[in-house]
Amino acid sequence: MSITLVAEHPRITTPLAAMVRRDVATLVRTCGLSGAGISVVLTTNATIRELNHRYRHQDKPTNVLSFPFADGADPAVQSLGLAELGDIVISVDRAAEEAQHYGLTLYQRLQWLVTHGLLHLLGYDHEKSAEDAQEMQHEETDLLEILNETRRPGMISLAINVDHVATIRQARGINEPDPVTAAALCELAGAKGIVVHLREDRRHIQDRDVRVLRETVKTKLNLEMGAHPEIIKIALEIVPDMITLVPEKRRELTTEGGLDVVSQHKKLAGTIAKMTRANIPVSLFIDPVSAQIKAAAEVGATFVELHTGTYADAATEAERDEQLQLLAAAAEEAHHHGLRVNAGHGLNYTNTAAVAGLDHIEELSIGHAVISRAVFCGIEQAVRDMVAIVEGAGW
Q: Where can this protein be found (predicted)?
């Protein structure tokens, strides 16, 4: 499947573009065209008016135009057997006007226009006759129902990493601020899980923190850890709700990159087997790379947590969109292998929504951004603000 989405309108934010692209992918798969290529252009009234005038001889803007690949293509190109559907061009200006008129969000109207445009590419034409219009409307209704069924309102959850509360505490070597108290406040504010990383060097979270959290966390405790014998022993003693195996380097400020599951296949399989016998689900923190996803499934992981750091660090919009597509493809592939999918690292209040809007991702793990904002507005408000972003991304 090849999907090109071109956003030429300022109202199309990165999260909104990601949601539209996801819907296009769902529609193409639903129609049995997974090997096909399609282009969607989200543009202005001026651009679509020009196209409407040039190709339909109507000098006015419209909401959507469809250009099937077969129409007007050079016979030599058609003979290559390329699985190209064509182009859908949508006026965001007109979509916004119609959304306001019908009492919809811009996204909801774009969803309908994409569906309508795709059906035109497939040969449906409501202008031929009343029967054709009825048939097309019936198909639109069915496809929109499928899209709405694949939405995940409330399914994606937010887990808060409280390591950096412990970092502040350890800077003075005293007993405050307490990450256990912070975890309780995060849960009260709507977090659905608490994450802590018990590192081999104990630079922030301490053994006591993990043991007390195991007794006090009411949602879910996710213990991040390296596959070190000492830490494995602690995990087996306290039995957290799940563990996430991550790479560890003593000189790094924070986890840098994902696990190389391919090269550590035997070691990780052994660790996972021990956890499985203790009924502890295991997640592997990996880069969004096909070989690592396949290896994660082979070693028996229940989850993968996709490393979002490269996406978060992208310097340009184009780089960020490219990384977002890699994450989307990785989540799809992991799901295909029977893995459950989480994601995290470097996510903040401006870049989280796009990742939260991707298919198959169940949970986002976020720490530094929330703890940083908490300095200015309090941890409960900081968590509530992030929960609103995560849960709102499904709509």
A: Cytoplasm
Residues 121 and 237 in one domain: no
> Is residue 117 marked as binding?
no
Angle at 247 between CA 242 and CA 249, to 5 degrees: 135
57 among known catalytic residues: no
Q: Does the annotation flag 368 for ligand binding? A: yes
State which of 98, 122, 150 marks the end of a domain: 150
Is 53 catalytic? The answer is no
Residue 116 annotated as binding site: yes
Number of independent structural domains in the chain: 2
Q: pTM higher than 0.90, yes or no?
A: no
88, 62: one domain: yes
Which of the listed residues 117, 150, 183 is the one where a domain comes to its end?
Answer: 150
Whether residue 137 sits in one domain with residue 280: no
Q: What residues make up the domain containing 103? A: 2-150
pLDDT over threshold 70, residue 81: no
- pLDDT tens per residue, range 214-241: 999 999 999 999 999 999 999 999 999 9
| 98-112, 171-185, 207-221, 256-270: least confidently modelled range | 98-112
Output the six-digit token pair for 184: 């309780």
Question: What is the average pLDDT score of the chain?
Answer: 89
User: Residue 253 pLDDT more than 80?
Assistant: no
145 has catalytic annotation: no
